[in-house]
Each structure stands twice: as C-alpha cells, then as structure tokens.
Design a protein that fits this description.
The protein has about 325 residues and is α/β, with parallel strands linked by helices. Helix content is about 30%, strand content about 20%. Helix 3 packs parallel to helix 6 and helix 4 crosses helix 6. The structure holds iron/sulfur cluster.
C-alpha cells in the first residue's frame, strides 16, 4: 500500500564555508514511512545535531533531499502540481518550538486561528468561523470564552502553544509534525500540551510525529521511536522496548542521562564518557559513534554498521548484534506494528 508520506533513502548534505567546501551530512540514508490508516505517535529523538529537525523540515516540504526522495501519496514532493501542494499544506500541519514567534502582538490570538479558516475557506460566515475556532480550542482543553479576544502576552506559554495545536486541528490534518513543542514551555505546562497531541491522535485519528531531544516525554507520548545520531539511525522500534532495554550504546547513553525519579535507579551509573573509545574511526564510513563507544571493535572503525533486527519490534545499527538478521533500511516500517 502507498504510504501517505515517505522518506526513501534520504541524504541531506549542507555546504558552508569558503567556496562551500565544508560539507555537513545532516541526514544519512534515512528511510521512513508514515501511514495514516493506522494513526500512531512516532518520536524522532536525538541530541542537537542529530538531524531530527532536518528530517522534520523535509517531511514538511521545506527542504529537498540531496539524494533519495520524499514522497507524498507515492509522488515525489518536487513534482506536485498546485492542487496537490494545496492538499499537502492542508493535510500536513506543523507545531513549532516557539509559539510566541507566530503571534502578532498587535492582534488578539483569534488572528492565528482566522488565517487558516480564510485561506482554506473553511467557513461561510463569521458565525461558522467562530464555531470552528471554539470547537478546536475546546478539543485542546482551552476555554474559548477565556481565550478568544485576548492578546498573546495575556496568555501563558502553554496556552499559546495549545492554540497552535488547535490551529493545526482546524484543518483536519492527517499528520501533525511537532518539533520540540514543549521545550520552551514551563515544565508544569508540558503535560497539558503533550496530552492535547495524544488526544488528537486518539480522538481524531491524526498521526503525530513528535521531534524531541527529551526521551522522557517521548516515552510518555509515543508508540514508536527512532533515535538518530549525527544524521544516522541508531535504533528504532517500540518505545517501551527501546527506552527500557536500549540495544544501541548511544541509546543507552541517552537513557542513562534521564533523571529517573526512581531512587533505586542510579542516574549516570552507565554513563559513556565522550572520546574514551579504544577505536578511533579510520574510515569516513565508520560507525559514527565509534569515537565515543566503549564497546567499539576494529570493524566499527572500518565500515558503517547495518541495521540489525534484534527483536520483532526493534532494530539497532550496531555490530554488537551481528548475530541478528539485517533489516534493509527501506523496510524499517516492519518494526512499527
Ligand atoms: Fe559501538 Fe561498534 Fe556498535 Fe558503533 S557499531 S555503536 S562503535 S559497538
């Protein structure tokens, strides 16, 4: 079946510096399908520089791949006609990190909700537009009477972000890409925003791609997770398995940096020190984690590890799992059952 949205063997290289000779590989041969017939919450997790935001920008159509392709309903994004582009703009919505930057401080917050209603002609009258706005605000747990007519500075960061979620909902999208939606919001308000995203998935059948550096929220919100390291997939699969029993040394590092509330769990016990590997990469195509990995072997410095299917719902790109079957990267969705 044709996927709603698909990255197929996508690599993205940015050039910079004098004569643009400095090359940074932001994404390296990544494949991923987003099916909307079984709406799921997928998390894309990694540190700064992992490529997760580049991946999100590419799925939103803001960036083109250097090689590989991004397909919308089976068609390359670069060859969509005007009607298909318009359908894409409606079906794929984004929620960004900084909700404040989207608002015009001189307009009440109604303005950000009215814009998509006008642009996509969602209502025939002002009364109908008002009803749509109230319905969307209620769906994300906001009181319309206490929200509409207010100016951005009169609302909390959490309320402003939930209005952006309501704005995305107005268009009845099939996919919402939420890029670090709670990182600029007080910790006490994060749960309400994340719960509204889950509600959209549960009650409205909208697929959610949750991009984050925070494994704790990824664990609470998502069904599946992909962990990226320097543009490459390190580990992917069922979130419960990946977070509770990580198989890739990098995921183990990330999980070990979570400040668990469980006092029995010793935080940092298995910390992997940076630059303490016995193996330094000798090949440009070595495992990218080889210079930090305490388990590195000679082979790790010579070639990139394939993706090994370590159990039915999870795969890790690490030679420690060489006894497992190799999972072709284009077939990664076989993990997301
Ligand atoms: Fe470590 Fe080697 Fe696995 Fe890379 S492939 S994570 S260097 S053990």
């Amino acid at each position: 079946m044709t996927a709603f949205l698909e990255l197929r063997n996508v690599t993205k290289v940015f050039s910079s510096g004098i004569l643009r000779k400095k090359r940074t590989v932001a994404l390296d041969n990544l494949s991923l399908k987003i099916d909307t017939d079984r709406p799921m919450v997928k998390a894309i997790a990694g540190e700064s520089g992992s490529g997760k935001t580049t991946l999100g920008m590419m799925l939103m159509g803001f960036l083109s791949p250097t090689s590989g392709s991004v397909l919308y309903n089976g068609k390359d994004m670069r060859s969509l006609n005007r009607d298909e582009q318009r359908a894409f703009r409606r079906e794929v919505q984004a929620v960004f990190q900084d909700p404040f930057s989207v608002y015009n401080p001189f307009y009440p917050v109604d303005h950000v909700l009215e814009m998509p209603i006008e642009k996509f002609k969602l209502a025939k009258s002002r009364r109908e537009a008002r009803a749509l706005m109230e319905e969307a605000l209620s769906a994300v747990g906001l009181q319309p009477a206490e929200t509409l007519g207010r100016f951005p500075h009169q609302l909390s960061g959490g309320q402003r972000q939930r209005i952006m979620v309501a704005r995305a909902l107005l268009l009845k999208p099939r996919l919402i890409i939420a890029d670090e939606p709670v990182s600029m919001v007080d910790a006490s308000l994060r749960a309400t925003i994340l719960e509204s995203l889950r509600k959209l998935n549960r009650d409205f059948g909208i697929s959610i791609l949750y991009i984050t550096h925070d494994l704790t929220t990824a664990y609470h919100v998502s069904n599946h997770i992909l962990v990226l390291y320097r543009g490459s997939l390190a580990e992917a699969g069922d979130v419960e398995h990946v977070i509770k029993q990580p198989k890739h040394p990098y995921t183990q590092l990330l999980v070990d940096s979570i400040p668990w509330p469980d006092l029995e769990h010793s935080w940092g016990k298995n910390r992997i020190p940076s630059g303490k590997s016995a193996v330094q990469p000798v090949s440009a195509t070595a495992c990218k984690f080889a210079d930090r990995c305490p388990h590195a072997m000679p082979v790790c410095g010579q070639q990139p590890p394939p993706l090994y299917r370590v159990d039915p719902t999870r795969a890790a790109a690490c030679f420690l799992h060489q006894e497992a079957a190799v999972l072709p990267r284009e077939e990664i969705n076989a993990l997301f059952v």
